[in-house]
Amino acid sequence: MNEIKLHENKEIRSIWDNEKEKWFFSVVDVVGVLTDSANPRDYWYRVKKRMSDEEQSELSTFCRQLKLKAVDGKMRETDVADLQGIFRIIQSIPSPKAEPFKMWLAEVGKERVDEIIDPELTIDRALQTYLQKGYSREWINQRLQAIQVRKELTDTWQDHGVTEGLEYAILTNEITKAWSGMTTRQYKDFKNLKKENLRDNIICPPWNSCSICSRKLQLRN
Questions:
Q1: In sequence order, which residues have a C-beta less than 8 Å from that of residue 116 and are 6 or more positions away?
Q2: Which of 91, 139, 140, 197 sits most deeply, having the most CB atoms within 10 A of its CB?
Q3: For the segment 65-118, what is each residue's pLDDT rounded down to a tens digit?
Q4: CA dist 97 to 19, 163, 199, 217, Å?
């Protein structure tokens, strides 16, 4: 499960490992928050170059590569680390934001454990995240309904043998083109969006009245 975490309105990509029961966070995103660097990827590269052989060996024990969604929307191998690893990396990056960030990370870990016990908390957290981003409650309610409709749509696709990934993207493009005349990528460029979710930044026909979505794009044999 991939998620975007918000810290001081900055996005941090993360992934939950069910087997290890741990969050893994994008190291580059964490570096960006701590340093405000215009190029956190290059900053992280220089941090690793400065490490001794012993430190680099230690780094390999808690830093791994997992696929996270990149700016271009594709899933790419990305340096990630669990909480313990992120704390170790923070020690290598002098920043006045270090201590508040550690407290935030600890809270994120606790939230996920709580959500496993009570899944309804996930919905509550999504609502609070949208409120923090400045969306109205009316918009949030519509967005949460749209998420449910999207889930029903992808369930239908799965029932018809559609594979998640490229095939999902193709069908999603067809939906976007049907009402906007643009592909998903073209519409994101039009809205000048990078990592942001397109469905959080569009005004489209209500999902329940859209002829395409109400039919759930029934696949024709």
A1: none
A2: 140
A3: 888 888 787 888 999 988 778 887 887 777 777 777 777 766 766 666 566 556
A4: 31, 42, 31, 47
